[in-house]
Structure formats: C-alpha cells, structure tokens
Amino acid sequence: MNIALLATTAGAACMAMIALFIRMKAIKKPASIKKIILPPFFMSTGMLMFVYEPARLVPLQIIEALTVGIIFSFLLMRTTSFEVRNSDIYMKRSKAFAFILIGLLIARVIFKLIIGDAIEVAELGGMFYLLAFGMIIPWRIYMLIRFREIEKRHHASIDEPASVLSKKMVK
C-alpha cells in the first residue's frame, strides 16, 4: 500500500472524527441562522488551493465533483431535521450523518486507488474539496429554509392567543 494513500486516509479519518465531534457538540446548543450560514463561508477559503497550478481542474472534473457533491447533499437533506425544545430550535441527532461521512471516506479511498495514478494528488484534492463544497452549499441552503419555516411557525404559535390555539387543537 502506498504510504501517501495511508497518510492522507488517516488525515481524512481524523478530519471526519473532528467533524462528528463538532456536530454532536453543536446539536446540544440551539441552532441559529449564523450557525447555518457561516460554515460554507469558512470553507470557501479553501478555494485558494486553485491558485496553485497543479490543483487546477478542467471543466469536466469540476462538473463531476460538484455533481457528486450535490447527490450527497440530498442524503444530508433527507436526514436533517429540526425540533423545538424549551422555546429554542435544535437540530435533531441523525445517525445517518456518521454513515455519510464514513461513506465519503471509503469513496475517497476507492477513488484514490482506482484513479490515483491517472490524476495528480493536488488535482484529486481539488476534486474532493469541490465535492464537499458542492455538498455543503445545497445542504446549508436547505437547512436555512427549514430553520426559517420552523422559526416562523414557532413565533406564530407564541404570538397567537391561547383561545385561538385551543380552537386549532380541537380541529
């Protein structure tokens, strides 16, 4: 086995564990628009890798990476939900998130084994970055829309008088 493949896989596994830890910790705190919007902005600094010539991709590679990312984002959207607890909105815990991360890690290793000789390491890194970026943007947009819907419903239920709410509960 290639030592570079082993080292990068170990690094990716560590990053996945950190992501899981951060996600599990974040679930314990109320969600907010800021917490939904900021991660893609922080991640966007990684686009600077494309300043480095070997990391630049051809249009077909960009389309492939973004398409796979968007497909994975549908899995994240399907497993993401919110709940209202103690007048705050929280993300519900999803076991699927861990499986999706592990699936991405396995896919990364398989892709590196299959096409690692045909594509430079920097190019492959750029493709996986775009895959992740293509996954997080639609997912976070979905999360923002769902959060706003729940927030609007929650505030509407707080603002309604008790008599109106009791009538709605009877129906």
From TrEMBL:
TM spans (from-to): 6-24, 36-52, 58-76, 96-115, 127-145
Transmembrane found in the keyword field: yes
Keyword Transmembrane: yes
Keywords assigned: Membrane, Transmembrane, Transmembrane helix
PANTHER family: PROTEIN CCDC
Protein name according to UniProt: Membrane protein CcdC involved in cytochrome C biogenesis
Taxonomic source organism: Sinobaca qinghaiensis
